[in-house]
Design brief:
It is a single chain. With 363 residues, this protein is of the alpha/beta class. The chain folds into two domains: 151 residues, Rossmann fold (3-Layer(aba) Sandwich); 174 residues, Vaccinia Virus protein VP39 (Rossmann fold, 3-Layer(aba) Sandwich). Helix content is 26%, strand content 29%. It contains ten helices and 18 strands. The strands form four sheets. A seven-stranded mixed β-sheet has the order 3-2-1-4-5-7-6, with helices on both faces. Strands 12-11-10-13-16-18-17 form a seven-stranded mixed β-sheet. Strands 8-9 form a two-stranded antiparallel ribbon. A hairpin with a 2-residue loop joins strand 8 and strand 9. Helix 4 runs parallel beside helix 5. The relative contact order is 0.11. Bound molecules: S-adenosylmethionine (SAM). The site of S-adenosylmethionine has 20 residues, from helix 7 and strand 11.
Length: 363
């Protein structure tokens, strides 16, 4: 663990916002904290390492790296290579059934979604040694009492560190016994129940923007092949497919918890765990529909959506349509007009706008 080495990290997906970083003080803090302990020979797991900072620093410990985003897996691999760390990373996902050796040390960057934090704690609970010590890093401004409550559900001893560069560490030990497994999350929309794993967008109720989209979109007769990009639990694609049964819907999301949720809701769905539309080889679509992300964790960033708009251009048939719903204040129309010959507002209310883009006007 060379704290003084010069490290390089890149972001995947790329961003145009140069103020966004690849790690923060909470990551530095947790690395400092474990470097003071004798953890090198202990079985280690890392959770929520977004771009690979923790994985690079702890590579000597040959850790299990728990990932849930495809872009996270790619970023960590690229950053290990960029820093000339020649290990074959032990990536595992939240759906892992077993680990080679129970974890004695866990390093975790607390995610914005506390449901995801809870899911991580469930996984740690399942695969850790009884003497495990869990170091959870967070920026002080993101602290909520629920973090403590969640940690105390699984561990008897939960301590908070002093502040370092506006970050803190929660140290958890004293693993409790016989904790019950949690249930899946349910959302009901138009009499259908959608299931999802923790850590998937919009818990227990349909997102207002998504609802506005689904109440206003009419699939045109020739639109048979549809892509639901950034599908979450699949609610957009599944709803449209049930309303227009002769359509064939494809689903894409960067989040494995999301793509696996789609499988819970539609057995025959064609689902891709991907962050870059260019990596889905082959199909072109008559309709691409999306409620795209405009923030990641605590950061606001529309780069991912803009990249998707630019690339979607190449995956539409000649008569194809891109439909996007978003908060009005983001004003995607200016960006879409630079990409598509026809970009217009299909519907709007006081909060949301639905944009429609085409190559030519239908006859
Ligand atoms: C606003 S949510 C919409 C989810 C779902 N369509 C709905 O309406 O409930 C945006 C989704 O985009 C996904 N996402 C973020 N970045 C992505 C990327 N690069 N590629 C694919 N999906 C992405 C997120 O995981 C999230 O599920």
């Amino acid at each position: 663990m060379a704290l003084d080495k010069h490290w390089n990290f890149i972001r995947i997906p790329k961003t145009k916002n140069t103020t966004l970083t690849t790690w923060n003080a909470a990551d530095e803090h947790v690395i400092q904290c474990v470097s003071e302990k004798e953890t090198l020979h202990q079985t280690t797991a890392i959770f929520h390492d977004r771009f690979g900072y923790l994985s690079c620093f702890l590579a000597d410990q040959n850790p299990d790296i728990v990932i849930y985003l495809k872009s996270q897996q790619t970023a960590i691999s690229k950053n290990l290579a960029l820093n000339k760390i020649n290990i074959n990373p032990n990536f595992i996902t939240p759906f892992v059934h077993s680990v080679e050796k129970k974890w004695e040390v866990v390093i975790l960057h607390i995610p914005k979604s506390l449901d995801l934090f809870d899911l991580y704690l469930q996984i740690i609970f399942r695969f850790s040694d009884s003497n495990v010590v869990v170091y959870c890093a967070f920026m002080t401004r993101h602290f909520t009492k629920s973090m403590l409550k969640m940690a105390e559900f699984y561990f008897t001893d939960v301590k908070q560190s002093l502040t370092f560069k506006k970050s803190r560490i929660l140290t958890l030990c004293g693993k409790k016994e016989n904790i019950a497994e949690k249930n899946l999350i349910r959302t009901i929309f138009y009499n259908k129940t959608y299931l999802q794993y923790s850590g998937v967008f919009s818990k227990n109720q349909i997102d207002f923007a998504t609802r506005f989209l689904l109440e206003n979109v009419v699939v045109e007769k020739h639109e048979k092949k549809i892509l639901d990009w950034g599908c979450g639990n699949g609610i957009i694609g599944i709803f449209l497919n049930e309303k227009y049964p002769d359509t064939e819907v494809y689903y894409v999301d960067d989040n494995l918890l999301a793509t696996e949720s789609v499988h819970l809701n539609s057995r025959e769905a064609r689902v891709f765990w991907e962050y870059d539309i260019n990596n889905i080889s082959g199909p072109t679509f008559d309709l691409i529909v999306s409620n795209p992300p405009f923030h990641f964790e605590h950061e606001n960033d529309i780069s991912i959506s803009l990249d998707f708009f630019e690339k979607s251009f190449h995956y539409l048939t000649n008569k194809g349509r891109l439909i996007v719903v978003a908060n009005k204040h983001i004003n995607y129309l200016t960006h879409l007009k630079n990409i598509f010959p026809i970009s217009e507002i299909l519907a709007q209310n006081s909060k949301f706008a639905i944009y429609q883009c085409r190559f030519t006007r239908p006859c």
